[in-house]
Amino acid sequence: MSGAVLVAVAAAIGNLLQGWDNATIAGAVLYIKKEFHLESNPSMEGLIVAMSLIGATLITTWSGGVADWLGRRPMLILSSVLYFVGSLVMLWSPNVYVLLLGRLLDGFGVGLVVTLVPIYISETAPPEIRGLLNTLPQFTGSGGMFLSYCMVFGMSLMPSPSWRLMLGVLFVPSLVFFFLTIFFLPESPRWLVSKGRMLEAKRVLQRLRGREDVSGEMALLVEGLGIGGETTIEEYIIGPADDVANDLDIAVDKDQIKLYGAEEGLSWVARPVKGGSTVSVLSRHGSTMSRRQGSLVDPLVTLFGSVHEKMPETGSMRSALFPHFGSMFSVGGNQTRNEEWDEENLVGEGEDYPTDRGEDSDDDLHSPLISRQTTSMEKDMHSGHGPLSTFRHGSQVQGAHGEGGGAGSMGIGGGWQVAWKWTEREDESGQKEGGFKRIYLHQEGFPGSRRGSIVSLPGGEGTGEAEFVQASALVSQPALYSKDLLREHTIGPAMVHPSETVKGSLWHDLQDPGVKRALFVGVGLQILQQFSGINGVLYYTPQILEQAGVGILLSNLGISSSSSSLLISALTTFVMLPAIAVAMRLMDLSGRRTLLLTTIPILIASLIVLVISNLVHMNSIVHAVLSTVSVVLYFCFFVMGFGPTPNILCSEIFPTRVRGICIAICALTFWICDIIVTYSLPVLLKSIGLAGVFGMYAVVCCISWAFVYLEVPETKGMPLEVITEFFSVGARQAEAEKNN
User: Fold this and answer.
1) What does the pLDDT average to over 396-422?
2) 129 secondary structure, DSSP code
3) What is the pLDDT of residue 410?
4) By the 8 A CB rule, do 18 and 136 touch?
5) Which residue spans within 339-477 are E strands per DSSP?
6) CA of 80: how far to CAs of 48, 68, 88, 145, in Å?
7) What is the pLDDT of residue 538?
8) Could you tell me one molecular function GO term of this UniProt entry (predicted)?
9) Cβ distance 131 to 588 under 8 Å?
């Protein structure tokens, strides 16, 4: 996974520039107002500081839509250019108006980075470490602030500090970021698939994953192009045909189905568990029926929670169901692989779909999406829309196996695998009609029970023992097999290019229940984060540390008040870094939801202590100690939970087709709330005082905890496409309950 890690680190350099800019202007403005005589014009001073915020807000209004159109990488390149040009303009700045222009350009770069870096990292990172990598922007942003404060502090000790140099030195790291975006960062494979550039997407995935075979993930990316659709949750007993023993929980043989992987000769027999064809499967474990039982918790939350409860006891992302992270359900070991290809699959190999550049670029991919199986089950596997064996699109195939001929991986991360099934029935006229379904499979795990482990049963006449596993499945129409596409392409999905799925009205996509539900969660988190008090605590920190005697200590060392404030800010930022490092470790272990639920109470307690210390008359030393400890705890636990988590969740919960525009909506909410909080703080301080402000923030944090507990699901370790599928299922289930 080193490729994905390095790419995420390179992308997070953009957030380092954001943190660098935020800290630099805080120090440079002390000298700007002296040169331009702004002491009597505080509105202009405030405009200089806020111009970056205004620029970020303006560019966010269209950045998401353009990123969905042009790609993630071009927008990151543009952000580096804006950083670079803006820094040079600020370095020149003969007057305050040119300085404002430079700050505006710099703000444009900030807005693009805040919106696009989380998207980019989420779309390139493996599910197992996506939380860790998406916490990198928080770490690099705080690191950039620390480095910038140290630089500005050092310059402030000079006889005549230059604010132009403080602001203009940003061109050095921005130039580094520019070269990284040009020569190192690839385009997002999910965006490439959405545009039909399959070969490029395959090569990028091979680089990011460090392996040749990316069949499963390529299949996943195409399936992720769909929005909405009817999805059911089913349970299967899975194993080789000879090894699935009769069981009271297993449906009769006529319900037996065969699952197919995306590689040659790969299939498996599955039998559905009785009563396992609807969302009620997970309801048995107390998930989607929570509201009917009187609970206020959203069904979506408990639906996600049931998945994590079913993880195998070992907790490993590579569960016993997929021990080698390789071919589908590697249990039994006696699966016969058919190496013979029929003529149907050999004809026209290399004549795959061209990319949007007009190239016939997939001619080196020589395997169909669904491999042909020479068993009696497939003799009739044809429908009026074309044979199943030719359902392919040039990209969803295995890579080179190497000399050993090892099995390709159908794993899509987090213990999930993707497969397909074909079912058929007779209509009223006696004609056979088939149904083609896509399945996301996940092993169930319950300690001390048959569920979730590889279970051995008597093998009947055979020697040894038979093995099978129980798995939950999200079952839906494949992205290339939707009713709309079949009406347009009557010859069948074999002739449908993935880019054909990305059609329709953007407004229609945004009206999908799953998308609306995800927007509710994302926008709600952004609003609550901004009103949880971080800006107020940052504003108050220098005063608290001054009361603690830090200012007196620094003045005794011969450091001026301006330099002291910069050094205090640098120390405050430095304290955050170890806490963020801990969050990086816990984000994929404990999970996003758990981190929020455990850190927000610490924020509430810290704010309450600050309220009490400002209302109750006490010894100055006691007051300083209480205030200092409360502020340090607030900072540390904020950057562990409420700091990075909203952006991480927002980058995970939206479908590929609308991810850019939806995250732009969330980012726009962030910037608008940031402006409101920043400019309302002085007014609130005058009207209700410091204790009243912190009390209000504590109330917002209480509301935030309740919102997370009731509405925010746990997404750790799950592929993005599976997350959006669960949002669709949960939203439709909630609507059904509401209507009933």
Assistant:
1) 54
2) G
3) 65
4) no
5) 382-383, 386-387, 411-413, 416-426, 432-443, 455-458, 465-476
6) 21, 19, 13, 18
7) 81
8) transmembrane transporter activity
9) yes
How far is it, in rounded angstroms, from Cα 558 to Cα 560?
Answer: 6
What confidence tens digit (pLDDT) does each residue in 542-588 have? 767 766 667 677 777 778 777 887 888 888 899 899 999 999 999 99
Q: In whole angstroms, give the CA distance from residue 188 to residue 123.
A: 6
Q: Are 300 and 734 contacting, i.e. CB atoms less than 8 angstroms apart?
A: yes
63 alpha-carbon distance from chain centroid: 18
Mean pLDDT computed over every residue of the chain = 77
In DSSP notation, 166-232 reads: HHHTTHHHHHHHHHHHHHTPPPPHHHHHHTT-HHHHHHHHHHHHTSS--HHHHHHHHHTT------E
Predicted confidence (pLDDT) at residue 244 exceeds the cutoff of 90: no
Q: How far apart are CA 120 and CA 464, in angstroms?
A: 49
Going 263 to 267 to 273 to 277, the CA torsion angle's sign is: positive
Triad 412, 413, 415: Cα angle to 5°: 105
Percent of the chain at pLDDT > 70 equals 70
Please say whether the beta carbons of 688 and 626 come within 8 A: no
The helix or strand, by DSSP H or E, that contains position 238, with its residue range, turns out to be: strand 232-239
In whole angstroms, what is the distance from residue 725 CA to residue 740 CA? Answer: 23
Instruction: Please report, to the nearest 10 degrees, the dihedral formed by the alpha carbons of residues 390, 394, 395, 398 taken in order.
Output: 60
Return the CA Rg of the chain.
28
In tens, the pLDDT along 432-478 reads 556 678 888 887 754 333 333 333 333 333 334 445 778 888 888 88
- Facing residues of 443 across strands? 471
Cβ neighbours of residue 552 under 8 Å, at least 6 residues apart? none
Q: Cα–Cα distance between 2 and 594 in angstroms, integer?
A: 27
Domains located in the chain, CATH noted: 1-184 (1.20.1250.20), 231-243+254-272+467-474 (no CATH), 505-737 (1.20.1250.20)
